Model the fold of this input.
Amino acid sequence: MFIEVGLPWNEIWINYNIVGLPLVDVSAKFIKSLRMEDEIVIESQVVEWGDKVWILRHDVKLGDAIHVEGTEKRVWGARDADAPQGFRAEPVPAEVRALLSGE
Done:
């Protein structure tokens, strides 16, 4: 998802001085079964923005049918000068938000 919008993983850390994009919540709803040999497509999009967090939705599809619906909530994790081994949540940069929103 990030690479497709021009945000390669190896550059995000350097360009935005972050330590990561921690996953703080996740859910999945399994609707139909799949087999190991099934060729699936995963469609992902941001469905909600907060100031420092965002929620992604992932649809796992076989043909036109959705087999799994998943969501994840992530935090923009910046370096924290007061806690060198930790991080703090900061606002997602406007240009990152625009790229991930398809703007």
About this structure: The mean pLDDT is 93. The CA atoms of residues 34 and 67 lie 7 Å apart. The first helix runs from residue 9 to 16. The chain has one domain: 3-100.
